[in-house]
Structures are given as structure tokens and as C-alpha cells.
Amino acid sequence: MTKKIKNRDSAASSEAMEKSIRAFLLFLELEKSLSENTIRSYTFDLAKFSNYLIDLNIDSFENVKESHIESYIAALKKEFSASSMARMLSSLRQFFDHLLNSGKTTLKTNPLEYFDSPKLGRKLPVVLTVAEIDRILAQPDVNSTLGLRDKTILETMYACGLRVSEVIDLKCSNVLVSEEVLRVFGKGSKERIVPIARSSLEWINIYLSKSRINLAKSHSEDHLFLNWRGRRLSRMAVWDIINKYSRAAKIEKQIHPHIFRHSFATHLLEGGADLRSIQEMLGHADISTTQIYTHVDITYLKEVHKQFHPRG
Questions:
Q1: C or N: which end of the chain has fewer Cβ atoms within 10 Å?
Q2: 238, 201, 205, 231: which is closest to 217 by C-alpha?
Q3: 45: Cβ contacts below 8 Å, ≥ 6 apart
């Protein structure tokens, strides 16, 4: 799973470091049940740090000092944003904690113990208005096989606030028609039940009977949304679908797949939904993650006040 570390004279030491990384990644996969994408990020972060150590002729994680971490952070600042650095340092901190907990190291403390992550400004997510959502949803040609599929994908993402990974992993058996809910498996394969609007459920039924039946092949599995080869859609395919119809709807905002999820949460909050319910539907482990939408809502209210109040 790890990226191959550069060849150096200290090949044995490189192999030892790779072995430690593989053990940690296996722990994340089996014990923490992290997603493939998350593990890929850890792999990149740890391989980069290992290569940095080898360039300094440091042949073991046990020889890492605070001064090495300090110089590494300085190097990262030239190449990465604060958010990327925060993630990379978090990966290293967890890796060294795992080494310490394994009891297979001479390390006494985590070399990142006294290093703070970069301060991140709280960036409010871009959201679409209800009118903009409606314009995008009106674009697909529902009389064509792929157009009907695309319409159903967009309807489902907005109706349930799904992540892209959750959309492409959705199974036909996860659509519980009589209960009007979806069984969704989010980060770490955690299951949650999400209500789906009846109108969106109707689009799924139409798609199943008129579109998926034409896309499915003998090798097709139970995935709900298929490409023209009859296989599960890729993340990039969903990205392309959203970009295609957003451009057709002449949306000028910066569009990305998560924008439907952000809009879902914001529109619920604007409609009066409580934060705890939104947290459950989004599958956030910590409500502080959901609270960012209260800031979005306040921003929206300020804009309304400015536009319509006589003293605005």
C-alpha cells in the first residue's frame, strides 16, 4: 500500500521504515476501518516523510528528533497549504503514537508532541440557492438512458446530502422504498439511515425501470448507479456529471460534488431543521463539524437583511 521509498545506500533501513508504515496502515484498515481514500492519504504523507528522512541520512524512525520535525515543517511550508500541512502532521503524530503503543521502539516520546498544527481559518462552504439547484436538476435529458441516470444521481445527492463516495457505493438493496429511506455507508463504513424525498424516490424507481435495466450487464453487481459498461461509476464520473449540468445551467459559482451536500444541510437549516438532526443525516461524528452551517445560515440572513431592510 505504501509508495515505494527512494533507493538509497541504507536499503535495509528503508525496508525497516516501510515495514513500520505497512504495519500502521494495516492497523488503520483493519482496526479503524478507514476508507481506501483516507488510507491513501496516510500512505502519501508517511512516504513523503520517510523520503525526507532518507535525504537527511536518517535511517530509522527511532532517530527522529524535534529538530528534524522543525526542519520538515519549514520544508512543507514552501510546498503545501496550511490545511494540507495540518493533515500531514496529524498523520505523523498518529503514526508515532502507534509506534509508541506497539512497544517495539526505543522512542520514549512522540517527536511531534510539542508541535501545533497550522492555524486554519474557518472557510465557509460555497452553497447553491434553491433556485440554482432547480436549474441544475432541470438540465439532464430524462428521455435518454444516461440523462435519466444523471438526473437521478443529482436528485439523490441533493435529497440526502450524500458524499460522492456514498453515491457511487450505493446499492439497489440500500433503497428501502416502503420506508422511504436509504441505507448509507459513510466514512469508516459507518451505516446511517437517511430519509429521501418521495419525489427523488420516484426518480430512482423510474431510473431502475427505464435506464439501469439498459446499462446493467451480466457482470454488473448490485450498485445502483452504473456507467455505460455496466460497472460502478467512478468519483471522477460524478464530478464530470455535476460540472456538465452546472455549466449548462450557467452557474457561475465554483462547483464541486460536495456543494450538493453543503446545500442540502444549509437549506435544511434555513427551513428550520435542528442541528442535531442535520448531524445525523450528514453522518458527522462530531456536531462541531455540522456547526459550520450555522455560520453559513447567519451569512445568508445578513445578505437578506442587507438586501431587503430599509437601513440595509
A1: C
A2: 231
A3: 87, 88, 91, 92
Q: Which amino acid is at 171?
A: K
* Grid cell 460540472 in the structure block, residue: 243
Percent of the chain with pLDDT over 90: 52
User: Given strand 181-185, what is the order of strands in its sheet?
Assistant: 175-176, 181-185, 191-195
Q: What's the pLDDT tens digit per position in 243-275?
A: 999 999 999 888 888 899 999 999 998 888 888
Residues 78 and 19 in one domain: yes
On the question of pLDDT at 107 being above 90, the answer is no
Number of domains in the chain: 2
Distances (CA, A) of 268 to 65, 182, 185: 49, 18, 21
H-helix or E-strand spanning residue 194:
strand 191-195
At residue 312, the pLDDT reads 54
Closest by CA to 297, choosing from 161, 274, 257, is: 274
Residues 277 and 180 both lie in one domain: yes
**Entry pTM:** 0.61
Residue 82 is part of which domain span? 11-102
- What's the CA gap between 219 and 205, in Å, rounded? 22
Active site residues: 163, 187, 258, 261, 284, 293
